[in-house]
TrEMBL record:
It comes from Streptomyces hokutonensis. The chain crosses the membrane at residues 210-234. Pfam families: TPR_12, TPR_16. PANTHER family: TETRATRICOPEPTIDE REPEAT PROTEIN 6, UDP-N-ACETYLGLUCOSAMINE--PEPTIDE N-ACETYLGLUCOSAMINYLTRANSFERASE SPINDLY-RELATED. It comes from the Bacteria. Residues 86-96, 108-137 have a biased composition (Acidic residues). Residues 1-189 are annotated as: Disordered. The keyword Ribosomal protein does not apply. This is Tetratricopeptide repeat protein. Keywords: Membrane, Repeat, TPR repeat, Transmembrane, Transmembrane helix. TPR repeats lie at residues 422-455.
Amino acid sequence: MAPREHDNKPTEGEPGETPVAAEREREWERVWAEGETDAEAGTGSEREADSQAAEVRSEAEADSGEAEASSEAKANSGQVKASSEVEADSDGDEASSEAGADSKVEADSEATTDSDAEADPEIEPEAEIEPEAEIEPEAGPTEAAAPSPGHDHHPHSHDHDHPHAHDHDHDHDHDHDDHAPHPGTPEDAVADERVAAVRRLGAAGRRWRVVQLAGCAALLAVAMTAGAIAIGAAKDSGATGVAAVSSAVSPDLLASGSLDASIAALQAHLRGQPKDFDGWATLGLAYVEQARTKGDPSRYPQAQAAFTRSLKISPENENALEGRAALAAARHEFAEALAYADKVLKENPYSERALCSRIDALVELGRYDEASKAADLADARKPGVPVFTRYAYVHELRGDVKTARTVLEQALAAATSPGDISYVAGTLGQLAWNQGDYKTALDYYGRALAADENYLPALEGRARAQAALGDRADAIKGLELVVSRYPLPQPLVELGELYESRGAAGDKAKADDQYALVDAWIALARANGVNADLDTALAAADHGDIKSALKAARAEWARRHTVHTADALAWALHVNGLDKEALPYARQATATGYHNASFIYHLGMIELATGHKADGRAHLAKALKLNPGFSPLGASKARKALEATK
């Protein structure tokens, strides 16, 4: 496969004119607030929609609870199915989950249709949405017309299970922070204040661990909603990374040079044309992107409100349904994302965003054969960078690194925009790092940063490669820069492990600081509707409450069977001393041929613990040969285990 070619204006003020910006903000708050005075009928319809959605969600949770209870029973009895049997069991769970997702999509559509007839022309967000003070720049945008949704040139915005060093959920996306604040700007000062707020909360969590678990979600949610915190994303992923220009956002929107300014322009446009359903859909997509690029899950409820308004005005409109798919994926509700993507494709088989969302959802549900077919179909219908990167990832998951590299190299050769170049080059850097080719990885990360010096996945990847080459000082310096602006789970864990491996005075306390911030971010994500069980399982298994890690891993496995959830469950079982139960999951995690040294290391350690000495030693040696610097702590433990079992 080879890539193929393929009005209103807001009130403006001079830069620094705070009164103008404040007046714009007050006007926007007024317009949002006026939605609360809509007719009783309209409000009732929306409540009915919420009620129907809640019923579907409750049924899905009940199904999930039964599946989780079943898994617990098997664990207690010690009867764990073999890999093939476990895979077979997943069919029933997935069917139930998809049925629930389909019902939710239909319920949402019917509700928006019913309420549209009596919808008030004014803006009516959901009750929990608050005005966005921080998204209004001091100087107004020059163009207020809402950019129309278009085809993106990057993977979507949800967190792919495509790990970096520690296999945290990864936005298999172009985690492209085109709009990161630059040092010395007012926006940078605000970001520093927000990050400081997160860190103060993390410090409190370390002093009162028990209190932190109960209260950090509420504190973070309030702080971020009020604009006190803006966490950025440098992901797999993001991973966490967070987490590339999303397929959910029109390139026209991002081309303005500032996502915040584009959102302000959309708000201004919608003040004058509140029945522009495309404008509402684009605003929702922009909020999803902003949540991802700033690591701020509090934007997701705002995105949901915008999509609801769009569908209320024009039921079944394609852009809003595509946005609902992107939002569901961002919240790790992959069965729901698949249902929305399929709904769009029934009406428009050539929708690029829906084609890409379908691949992503199938991958995240562990349905790799179907994902491969979906990638082939998308390539035939809508070839381009978003499809090429997904095509490559599907092949990488199956161990076909050669094809993945070839497709990505061709995509990079065809890329012209800074966003495309930085994303594809960064992905090639990650692919090289996974194979232990650190110098090549550094070359690609350098190319990504030449296109965009603030591209966080490349900054994070460069630090990871430096650490693997033994340049720990520069690696720590680089990750300190990343987490000072973007305190997200994966870079926080990576930095913590580098501190621990260095072992200097005070490093253990510094490492604990990073792990406490991971807990804070996870609490915030959950408070805003994000399923963070995989993040919890991965971080807590090595650096937190192992019981919580196991509970989270079991819950995630009940929802979806991927190589990443299998690995997370295997390792959580291992650290809890349940190695016999862990072994089938560890084997399933490596069964596709995916070249992931961390997975292979986990398998080797579990095999040693279950008395399979020869297999365990072979897998530990394989992990170190593939990627000798896969983890600052894990690689060291693998070497010690090999030495101890000679």
